[in-house]
């Protein structure tokens, strides 16, 4: 039996545009996101004028902006402060999150819902409100004890707002854990502590790494909470960038942005590779 197909209708310009958008809209979105980053990377390899402005000349790439960036002692001090804060904040936040997730894993649903609900509220809370509340809290508790706004209060503030992110990153993995693994460990003579470090921690390793990456990014990226709790005379990477940008975007900032982008990209690749390795084992 011969099937007679209707003739194809010619597509007008409007239909062609819709079809193009349906097929390539994800590439359009990615282009909007990454083209500015690519431009910043290209500008970071341009030279400077005598006034310190960037020279748009892609023919002769130079590392002058990177050299000037690392000659800036104020930037190096801010970078060192951010590194110290991250080294303190990330482990403490992740450890608190691991203990919390393991604790509520066997708890009643009411406790689980309360902890997870408070974590989600903390994440959804606007940062200015969190910053003001932490500043007021430190003014009435930490400052009367003889401390001053500075590194100590920044670390406390970062632990407070980073821990909920770590909890939300680790608990979904904790939920998938088979309870029989715990009972089997007890039957084989492992103590509770040994079971925790030999069974639970290796199982949660991908989630712990993801939580560490998220916590590190949040700590390095935060400006508002850091600004409210840092006091005078102390700068982190985020507050230093804000101070420099207020004076006008210098060429060194292009180099800094490039370094941050490349570092985050490498970190994300490493984080995504670990779960893939675990699945292939």
List keywords for this structure.
single chain, 281 residues, mainly alpha, 12 helices, 75% helix
Detailed description of the structure:
Helix content is 75%, strand content 0%. It has twelve helices and no strands. It has helices at 13-43, 64-71, 73-105, 109-124, 127-140, 151-175, 179-187, 192-203, 205-221, 224-229, 237-246, 251-280. The protein is globular and about 70 Å long.
- DSSP strand content: under 5%
Largest sheet: none
The number of helical elements comes to 12
Based on secondary structure, the structural category is: mainly alpha
Uncertain residue ranges: none
Quaternary structure of the protein: single chain
- The string of secondary-structure elements, in order, is HHHHHHHHHHHH
**Rounded radius of gyration (Å):** 25 Å
Number of strands: 0
Topology record:
Elements lengths: L12 H31 L20 H8 L1 H33 L3 H16 L2 H14 L10 H25 L3 H9 L4 H12 L1 H17 L2 H6 L7 H10 L4 H30 L1
Helix pairs in contact: 1-12, 2-12, 3-6, 3-9, 3-11, 4-6, 6-9, 7-8, 9-12
Briefly summarize what is shown.
By secondary structure, this protein is mainly α.
């Amino acid at each position: 039996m011969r099937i007679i197909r209707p003739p194809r209708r010619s597509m007008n310009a409007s239909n062609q545009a819709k079809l193009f958008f349906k097929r390539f809209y994800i590439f359009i979105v990615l282009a909007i996101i990454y083209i500015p980053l690519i431009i910043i990377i290209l500008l970071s390899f341009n030279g400077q004028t005598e006034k310190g402005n960037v020279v748009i000349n892609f023919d002769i790439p130079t590392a002058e902006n990177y050299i000037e960036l690392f000659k800036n002692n104020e930037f190096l001090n801010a970078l060192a402060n951010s590194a110290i804060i991250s080294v303190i904040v990330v482990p403490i936040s992740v450890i608190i999150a691991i203990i919390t997730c393991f604790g509520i894993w066997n708890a009643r649903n009411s406790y689980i819902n309360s902890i997870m609900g408070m974590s989600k509220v903390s994440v959804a809370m606007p940062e200015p409100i969190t910053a003001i509340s932490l500043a007021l809290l430190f003014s009435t508790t930490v400052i009367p004890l003889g401390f001053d706004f500075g590194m100590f209060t920044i670390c406390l503030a970062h632990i407070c707002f980073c821990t909920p992110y770590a909890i939300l990153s680790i608990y979904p993995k904790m939920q998938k854990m088979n309870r029989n693994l715990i009972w089997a460990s007890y039957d084989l003579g492992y103590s509770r502590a040994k079971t925790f470090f030999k069974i639970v921690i290796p199982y949660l390793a991908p989630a712990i790494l993801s939580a560490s990456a998220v916590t590190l990014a949040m700590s390095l990226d935060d400006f508002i909470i850091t600004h409210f709790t840092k006091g005078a005379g102390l700068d982190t990477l985020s507050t230093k960038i804000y101070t420099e940008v207020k004076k006008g975007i210098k060429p060194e900032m292009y180099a800094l942005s490039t370094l941050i982008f490349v570092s985050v990209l490498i970190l994300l690749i490493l984080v995504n590779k670990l779960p893939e390795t675990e699945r292939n084992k």
